[in-house]
RNA sequence: GGGUGGUUAGCUCAGUUGGUUUAGAGCGUUUGCCCUACAAGCAAAAAGUCACUAGUUCGAAUCUAGUACCACCCA
């Protein structure tokens, strides 16, 4: 078979790995632990190529470390993603025209959804080859995790860090919940500023306010001006009438009002603006809070005839009416930034609301102390960013008005607030602590809010080892902290920073020793891959079309430190690469063992020795790159080793000589080393070939190749350099004779090397000369570094276009002039290092010779 | 408005301490080859004002500043 059949093999191979428990990890004091955590994907849908980027790089590290003898424990998991999942499910229900669903039923639907997608995600992770310990799988709504989250909440609550407070929050009218500041995107949009008249009680005077939101007049509590504003001094403490609704409100003064924006005079709606709310707090005695919205963004009872009309529609109605009644005097177009919800892409409303908050000060303090110990890769910029982020952190709104998520473990009984892990515990506390004996169970009420998703994922590094339910358990002490966390920089704030804060506070330890940030895969328009845009291909589609190894190569073949794009070309070139790996196996298998002469044996032996040197060189380079965590460069190097060195050179040479049993064994050893190096990057095909080669054990548990001690034989090195050069300039079927300067003859004096030269580069004759004059003018001069040699080949040179040669001569003349000027420059000669000057002189000589050759070509 | 990153061949990008780079690779294009691993292959060719301007330096794709465009993050 000429192409590799991944569909048949990949599943089978994964089964072999699982059956042999290769990825299973338990405490082994003789081995160094290597703890990895899979950044849990959301269960909102299946995985896309963006996830695969992180997981592939993680897998490479897991496999290399395993091969290097570490006890690798890679814990996989998924995130229940409370808000994202809930929105998704509600949307699906809405499309099916299912409304008014009960709490219990909805929760059940969510649970079934999570079961379905947990299974899909697990399957996809396995299909791309992730070597996770599946026995340790973590779902953020799993039993162990739910317990841990509750425990953490209660502990923080008891310490007084969690509190309830009425504040202005971001309200997503579609999802009907609060969302955090981080879940908001500001979009540049044109907006209109409306200038509206507010008359005083006697209707003789009026004041003009400018607002972008005329529909909020129902919530107007006051008009506010800056106390230093001369224009409005006479108005202060007077009263005005709100247009249309006729409510009387006071005019107050506050320094928070900017005199230069609009008319310098604003209306105050404290329930729906953070700034207004701040002003309200200072004037509590003078004004009231009026909430005008329902949870879905329609107007409430207070608006009377306008109730249940959406706010955006109402705006149009109100503007019309204001215009008709003569209140609206001016409309101004204005560019502004409008807040949209990341979750539902709807305009965010500000709303006053009672929410749970977590005081972050102690977390910030503890994290800043320990963050220095974390090694941040690949760029230092993220470290600066982390500090910056920590410092601007406000108290965290941790409650969400959703169904799907961790219910806040707080129970209310009459006026008592009881933090408890379960109803049973709450009753016990009531009985024991508060000594209430006749408890009316139906009057115990649980808090209706759920916790922000990140409140459950920030404890994951600890809770995945059950370190919260059983602190200092054996597993936890052995594995913690994570050795290397790999994740996209986009969740730096949401997740990474919070894990650092939690671990620092809770156990006074860093959660991970090292963090490696990757870029993000984008589409051709440089947009993030997202489910709502649908700008990516399904993973199953790609797996079926190309297979896991091709997918991995397509990802690895980009510098993933930055954001990048994968186009169809990448998949095709990666497929070609995998195919070549497969065909290298077929070729190796077909090598015939023959009985051969001593000279033939020596020839094959030299080729093998030469390649072992190359292999060592590459292995050193790859080890160094891996140590520096330069994963992209390591892959590029490995690809080059396989394609350019192993296939194009080594295997091509092998074709030209006969091989005996010993030779084949040595070739197989080389091939096995190549496969081992390739294995972490393309695990499936390498394992398949490994099995086909009749190895007793699997490549997954083989050891990483060591650098062999091979004598650096200059003679071999020089011979192959020359062979490769001749191959480069020689076209097939051209009769080439080569003349080598006698001074260098000594290098090839041994028959065996001469023989190899003939054999591998297909030269007809090799002559040695001592002086240039001795050579027939028919021969054309080529220069190869330190060797002077001539090649006889009329056809080759006749083909060369004279114009092109002229151009080349021009180019080299210009270049030569540069070098000559450089060498004339005293400053250069004084300042530049000796070797650089020597190099320039050498360059000059080389180019002069080249020009001479080209000139000869033309005039001959 | 503030910050970060980018601009190198038709496309996607490398270029790791300024000098072993006379700017490279893959894909695409053109040419020649089905020679018993691979046509998803091999061999070769064409293709570039390194965005622009100034500066530092003996020497700049590389360092500094500014400009333009693109993208992302934050408010």
Description:
With 860 residues, the chain is of the alpha/beta class. It folds into five domains: 223 residues, Rossmann fold, CATH 3.40.50; 160 residues, Valyl/Leucyl/Isoleucyl-tRNA synthetase, editing domain (Isoleucyl-tRNA Synthetase, domain 2), CATH 3.90.740; 121 residues, Isoleucyl-tRNA Synthetase, Domain 1; 83 residues, hypothetical protein PF0899 fold (2-Layer Sandwich); 58 residues. 45% of the residues lie in helices and 18% in strands. The strands form nine sheets. Strands 7, 8, 9, 10, 11, 12 and 13 form a seven-stranded mixed beta sheet that branches. Helix 23 links the parallel strand 26 and strand 27. The longest helix is centred in the C-terminal third of the chain and has 30 residues. It is elongated, with a radius of gyration of 37 Å. About 2% of the residues have low confidence.
